Structures are given as C-alpha cells and as structure tokens.
Amino acid sequence: MEAFKLMRELKTNFEQESIYLPREKGLDLLETTLENDKQISARCRDAKVEDLWSLTSFFGYSTQTFVQAVNLLDRFLAMMKIQPKHLSCIAISCLHIAAKLVEEECNISSSHDLIRISQCKFTISDLNRMEKIISEKLNFQCKAITAFTFLQLYHEMTILHTSERKTSLSLDKLEAQLKACLCRIVFSKAKPSVLALSLLAQEIEAIQSVDMLEISQCIQRHLKIADGELFYWRELVAKCMTDYSSPECSKPDNKKLVWILSRRTAQNLHSSYYSVPELPTIPEGGWDESGSEDSCEDMSCGEDSLSSGEDSLSSDTEAACAPPHFHQRISAPHSQGDSARLGAQCHF
C-alpha cells in the first residue's frame, strides 16, 4: 500500500511539474545578458541565490524552503524585466513567501529581522508590496512542485524497495547537492523530475548498489524519461559536483548560524534600519515573444507605487553583481566585542 501511494503521488507530481517551470525564453535572455546596471545577468542571479542559501542556513530554514524560494525567484525573473537594484527586494520576498509556505509559523523570522540581517535597503512596507506583486504575477501558484519534491519521493521509493545498505543513500547529501546545483541558472531549465533523478542515479552509481540502480531505472521507465535527456543532465550534475568539491570552492554552512552581537552593534543595526529610504518605483516590463520590453506599468498592480524617491540601491546592485561563490558570510556593521560562530562546513 505504501509503494502504491508513493507511485500515485509520483505520477500526480510528474503530470503537474511543467506548471511551475520558469519560462525558458526568459532564462535564455538572462544567460545572454551582459552585466550592466540596467538588467539582471545570470551571474547576478546566481550570486543572489547563494545569498538565499546563506540566509536559509542562518534562519534554520529547511531545504524545501530554499528550493521553493529559488523556484519563485526564477519564475519571476523569467517573466519580468527587472533592474539589478530591485533584485535584493525580490529575492528576500521570495524567501519570505517560501518560509510562510513551508515552515512552522513559530519558526518564521519576522520581516524586520529578515531585512535587518540581509542588510537590504528597503522597508517592511516594500517587502509586503513586493510579496503581493510576486504572488499576483505568478497567479498565486506559489507552492511549486520542485526537484526537492521528487528527490524525497525517489529516496523513499528506493529505500522502501531495497534492504541493501539502507543508510548508504543519504538524503541529506542529496539535498546538499541539489542546493549546489540550484546556484547555477542552467539547472533551472531542467525538469524537476529529471534533475532529481540525475542526482539520485549519480549517487547510486557512487555507492555501487545494483539493487538501487535497478530501482532508479524502473522509475525512469515509469516516468518515460528518455536516456538521452537523463544522460545530458547527469553530465551537467557531475561537472557541477566536481567543481563544487574542488579545494578552491568554499561551501556555505549547512547548519543554523549563531550570531552574537554586542549591545552597541545591535543598537546601530536597529537605528540604521529605520533610517533606510524606501525602495524606488519599480517599472514593469515583461519578456514578450520577441524579447522586447512590454509597455511599463506600476508593478504594484493598481496600488500605490513602492516609492518615487531617489534611487538608493546602488550598493545592492554592486552586491548582486559580485562574482559568484559558494560561501556567503552574513555580516553586519560591527564593533569591538562582536563575534560570529559558524558551524562546521558541509561536505559531500
């Protein structure tokens, strides 16, 4: 009965996964965009996803929350033309939406803390309005079927059908590998079912389990995933894991961070938050079939604009376009007596 339930759930998710895929044309445009101060490039997007990974660890959020946030971000960026100065507000809004969808209410950080820790220059009002904009543009289909959804199902099915070395197939390790992949925009083009199966098949090959390999092949046949498609994404996953495992690449901590602040720094953070100017007005421009920009309208969808003040996010633009790396330190204006404790690094 458990196996039947898992197969039925797998089929249902497989039939609906395409609904939550980012527009491929929009992703292509991001990949071909050169870095400038007017449009978001793939490099800016990847750096911002790494920031979300670090914030996910800091607040103790689950892998599911992170993956949901990345899905929301990619779907929105692939649909709308966004200026780099607005990227931070969009990314943090996606993380907050995802947390409210996934986490227990008592574990969700407040809007105030989220903005303060991320050190982004916008207000709670800006965050709330941006969340509303994102939800409306995505037709309120926020809780997506993602690669994490399939990864959990594949893992359960594999463990259920084999008694061989059950502890050798680590879901935590697969989750860490998935998060590393999502820091590269190319994997946003993969079907969630295929990306998850690519990760599973590669790990099964690494532990050399014949029984588990047969199960993964059975899943592939059941979902009618072509050999060529699976091979293509397995190659990309393998390359990503090789790069990630290199000594030159540092990894974000996979554990919740503990940040100890002196009273002086806490007061500075508190006062600086209230002095932040509001986010400037965000013009709307979507990707049409020719890649040109739609006519502009207010992204608040009929509400008051986010603000009409001076452009105040130049520093966000610089941060968003920083060279991508797999370790982001969440820092704050500090003074003597501050300290930060980071848990052990997570390795594959």
Folded structure, characterized:
With 348 residues, the protein is an all-alpha fold. The chain folds into two domains: 197 residues, Cyclin-like (Cyclin A, domain 1); 99 residues. The protein contains 14 helices and two strands, in the order H-H-H-H-H-H-H-H-H-H-H-H-E-H-H-E. It has a two-stranded antiparallel ribbon with strand order 1-2. Helix 3 crosses helix 5, helix 4 packs across helix 5 and helix 4 runs parallel beside helix 9. This is Cyclin-like domain-containing protein. Keywords: Cyclin.
Q: What shape does the CA trace take?
A: globular
Radius of gyration: 21 Å
Q: How many domains, as an integer?
A: 2
Mean pLDDT: 77
Family: Belongs to the cyclin family.
Keywords: Cyclin
Protein name: Cyclin-like domain-containing protein
Region (Disordered): 284-319
Which descriptors apply to this entry?
14 helices; two-stranded antiparallel sheet; Cyclin A, domain 1; disordered C terminus; 348 residues; mainly alpha
Topology:
Elements lengths: L1 H15 L7 H9 L9 H17 L4 H15 L9 H16 L8 H8 L5 H14 L9 H14 L10 H12 L9 H16 L2 H14 L3 H19 L12 E3 L2 H12 L39 H7 L18 E3 L7
Antiparallel strand pairs: 1-2
Helix pairs in contact: 1-8, 3-4, 3-5, 4-5, 4-9, 5-7, 8-9, 8-10, 8-11, 10-11, 10-12
Brief digest:
The chain is an all-alpha fold and 348 residues long.
